[in-house]
UniProtKB/TrEMBL annotation, chain B:
The keyword DNA-binding does not apply. This is Unannotated protein. Keywords: Nucleotide-binding, Phosphoprotein, Transcription, Transcription regulation. SMART domains: P-II.
């Protein structure tokens, strides 16, 4: 097994062919010339490697002077003994010009020619074909790369993904040997960088597996069926079939990832501008555009420009920026990070945690960025426990994916459901970690909950959040199981669930997690049939869990309330740590929330969270803000001056926000679920709360506040939170004169605000 | 001449295990199970779960199909009804139709031998 054996087979085939060739040559009439014929190897055989089941890819080259009948006899003189010996031969007989003609049309032929190797006969014939093939390949590089991409896509449609199939085709499946050959071909175009050394190990693993498969089956098929995996694993010296498949999966992922990266680079490639053209084309710029502290965009990829040792959080900042913009994270930056980042601070800084959630919530764009981190083994620096489940196979018909990929897919589906829950950050993190217990003895739900606790603590989540996630992981299969196996009409069924899940937040999270998990597993495990059963169960449980779920109104200290009574305008900066806390007190009036939010945005302070409440005609507000990347430090007094101006209507807030938003984003945003506004009405206290959930964007709170005021209602208290990239705001509202809203009016207000949010893309 | 029947049962999903066990105890060796939705005199829920694409007017059920010899028809129906019953609305229905021919794919056995 191995390169040496494959080479040995190749040499012996060469020798055999050489001797057959000299016999065949005797059949060529002397007039045509002994040097009128040559034999070359192409494809895998051309590279000098033969597995037992490999085809012999032969090219017979002639100069056109040999009579047809003699040529045929000569070729058959070589082929028949080969066929009789059981070789499978793929051959063609051509002149050099015929070869060029076909190579011009068919990319697969052109690709095979890049590996051409002389075996017997006139060397010149072979040499000229070789140099012409390479020249033509380089000349039409762009076209060939597009074609290779097309073939690769077709292959993956036909033969699936090597990394995830239970019984993959080692050659044809995506991430397999054909893709490696394609990468080699792309490298030869000299148009894009292809780091072939990254796939050297993968190639060796896959070739060895293929060779072992041929030896075990005695046949030439490349599909590694379940049945053969044990014998192949034994032959190659792996512990068991699982270890074999794990290595194959990892190899395939490396190949696939490199292919993705290379194709992306190619998309960014533009031919160099012509001599007298002064316009430099878009992404061929040499400049790096800075988008966050230590993070820049260069040629369509996000790069880390900051110092990883001083500011390790830059890794997640870069990842979140890339995912939220829908562009890739540079493979070089990740490799660099791997060298420089030895460990990550514990507990994680708040900003790192927020960036992590923003990364997870980014939808499809997240997958590439996560893969980039994983390929560079950075995921295990962030989550050491990830290493154990990386590429861990799930050897049953229910699951399409390995454990780690399944959890990433679950997080992907969860990002669609962020509007359905009040804590999207907990949903996303639970989705990513829900199967951490797999591959260990015992019930993976229980084991998973134990594993997840230290992970969450390391990330710096508060204790309450940690236990919610623990509960979610522990019971992530509960709803599906109960909904299909138990009588939903029976009160004991509902009671048994309520005993385990006793609050509205957890049940809504668990519901969203169940949907995400089911969708990620595939339609063997989830369908609208099952979804409606689960929804029915959740509805019944929600009815039974007591409480309307109103968030408690924010509390403030006596001194703060005293300041409110004075009716003065107050602004103080309480602490400047990872984040800045501002206490603002101002006389209450309609539109105050929007005004203050706008004032903060104009002063380049991004709102992360806020707690506000009206006491005695003044609003007391506590804001947590993050200054913008390069915003200069503002003093307390300067801020207070600006606030006073804003309250007096001297600042044109609307205009300034428009300017800021316009300069902020230059790339088109990733698709996100639309904003949702819900009404919660508590009959007992007659309080009405608007629950607003939306993708975070600059000026959102300003916009929201304006929409609320225009609806003719007043905000008495507000709880504003930004979780990753999702904004979750709860507003206690009344009529302008302070009366409570009746349910119909509240519903109308909610709908109007929701429509405005959906229509207004600032 | 029909001497075989196809018995179809629409039952509540959570009753599947009970019915399966009861049939196996009766000596039935094979059956087909599929997911189904429907309604009878019990109308479906009219609540729409927020954000979900489905309105639950059709209630999820399970469809069970068994091939039996005609002599066994009534007894098997009885077994299914007893096991599937929960007493509340939505328990479902069981019916049978005559079957002309049955063949076992692997061996080619026909008729009652293929049951």
């Amino acid at each position: 097994m191995g390169t040496r054996e494959r080479r040995a087979r190749s040499y012996s085939a060469d020798a055999r062919l050489a001797s057959l060739f000299s016999e065949a040559l005797l059949l060529i009439p002397i007039i045509s010339g002994r040097d009128s014929l040559a034999l070359a190897a192409i494809g895998g055989y051309g590279r000098g490697e033969l597995s037992p089941g490999s085809d012999l890819d032969l090219l017979f080259l002639h100069n056109g002077n040999i009579p047809e009948a003699d040529l045929t006899k000569a070729v058959e003189k070589i082929l028949y003994p080969l066929w009789d010996s059981g070789f499978s031969v793929d051959h063609s007989v051509r002149t050099r010009s015929e070869v060029k003609e076909i190579a011009d049309i068919d990319g697969r032929v052109a690709l095979g020619l890049l590996d051409i190797r002389w075996v017997a006969g006139n060397r010149d014939l072979v040499d000229t074909v070789e140099s012409v093939a390479l020249l033509d390949w380089r000349k039409n590089g762009g076209r060939w790369i597009s074609e290779l991409r097309k073939y690769s896509h077709e292959r993956s449609q036909r033969s699936g993904e090597l990394a995830y199939l239970l019984e993959p085709d080692l050659k044809e499946s995506r991430g397999g040997l054909r893709d490696i050959t394609a990468l080699r071909g792309i490298a030869k175009t000299d148009l894009v960088t292809v780091e072939l050394d990254r796939v050297a190990k993968a190639e060796s693993t896959l070739n060895n597996a293929r060779e072992a498969l041929h030896l075990v089956t005695g046949k030439s098929g490349d599909r590694l069926s379940f049945f053969e995996q044990d014998k192949v694993a034994e032959l190659l010296g792996y512990k068991d079939a699982d270890e074999l498949m794990l290595n194959i999966a990892q190899s395939a992922r490396t190949v696939d990832y490199l292919s993705e990266t290379v194709f992306h680079r190619f998309d960014q490639y533009r031919p160099a501008p012509k001599l007298f053209s002064f316009k430099s084309r878009g992404s061929n710029q040499e400049k790096t555009e800075e988008i966050a502290k230590g993070v820049g965009i260069y040629q369509g990829e996000v790069r880390i420009t900051g110092d990883l040792e001083l500011d390790p959080s830059v890794l997640l900042r870069a990842a979140a920026s890339a995912a939220q913009r829908g562009i890739p994270l540079s493979i070089d930056s990740c490799t660099l990070a791997k060298d420089k980042l030895i460990s990550f601070p514990q507990p994680w800084p708040r900003e790192a945690r927020e960036d992590f959630v923003a990364l997870l919530g980014a939808g499809n764009a997240m997958v590439q960025v996560w893969e980039a981190l994983d390929q560079a083994e950075l995921t295990q620096i962030l989550i050491p426990e990830w290493n154990r489940i990386r590429s861990l196979p799930q050897r049953n018909a229910l699951h399409r994916h390995t454990v780690d990929r399944h959890m990433v897919e679950t997080a992907l589906h969860a990002s669609d459901l962020t509007r359905q829950v009040h804590r999207p950050d907990l949903l996303l993190v639970s989705a990513l970690l829900h199967d951490m217990g797999k591959g260990l003895p015992g019930d993976h739900s229980i084991t998973g909950a134990e594993i997840v606790k230290p992970i969450l603590q390391r990330m710096g989540f508060p204790e309450n959040d940690v236990s919610v996630v623990e509960t979610l992981v522990m019971h992530h299969l509960l709803l599906s199981t109960v909904a299909t196996r138990r009588d939903l009409d029976d009160p004991t069924t509902i009671n048994s669930v309520c005993e385990l899940i006793s609050d509205p937040l957890t049940i809504e999270l668990l519901h969203a997690l169940s949907i995400s998990d089911g969708q990620a597993t595939g339609n063997t495990a989830w369908s609208s049939w099952k979804a409606s059963l689960v929804a029915d169960l959740v509805n019944r449980v929600k009815k039974q869990i007591s409480g309307v779920g109103l968030p408690p109104q924010p509390e403030f200290s006596e001194s703060e309330k005293d300041l409110a009574k004075s009716g003065q305008i107050h602004l103080s900066i309480i602490k400047r740590d990872e984040i800045t806390e501002l206490l603002i007190i101002a006389p209450d009036r309609p539109g105050l929330l929007s005004l203050v939010a706008g004032f903060l945005t104009i002063n380049r302070l991004n709102v992360r969270s806020a707690r506000t409440r009206t006491f005695a005609n003044s609003a007391v507000m506590r804001w947590l803000v993050l200054p913008d990347v390069y915003a200069p430090d503002i003093s307390e007094s300067a801020l207070k001056q600006s606030l006073t101006k804003a309250l007096n209507g001297e600042l044109d807030i609307a205009e300034k926000i428009k300017e800021r938003v316009a300069s902020y984003r230059s790339t088109s945003p990733i698709p996100v679920p639309p904003p949702i506004v819900e009404v919660i009405h508590d009959g007992a206290t007659e309080a009405t709360v608007l629950d607003v959930r939306s993708h975070d964007q600059m000026g959102l709170l300003y916009l929201l506040g304006k929409a609320v005021t225009e609806s003719g209602v007043d905000v008495r208290a507000a709880i504003v939170s930004t979780l990753g990239a999702e904004a979750c705001d709860s507003l206690y509202i009344t009529e302008i004169d302070g009366r409570p809203l009746d349910p119909k009016r509240a519903a109308a207000v909610a709908q109007s605000i929701e429509q405005q949010l959906r229509a207004n893309k600032i | 001449m029909a001497n075989m029947n196809l018995i179809t049962a629409i039952i509540k999903p959570f009753k599947l295990d009970d019915v399966k066990n009861a049939l196996q105890a009766h000596g039935i060796k094979g059956m087909t199970v599929s997911e189904a939705s429907g309604f009878g005199r019990q109308r479906g829920h009219t609540e729409v779960y927020r954000g979900a694409e489905y309105t639950v007017e059709l209630v999820p059920k399970v469809r069970l199909e068994v091939l039996v010899s005609s002599t066994d028809n009534d007894a098997v129906i009885d077994v299914i009804v007893k096991a599937a019953s929960s007493g509340s609305i939505g328990d479902g229905k069981v019916w049978s139709v005559p079957v002309e021919q049955v063949v076992r794919v692997r061996t080619g056995e026909k008729g009652v031998d293929a049951l």
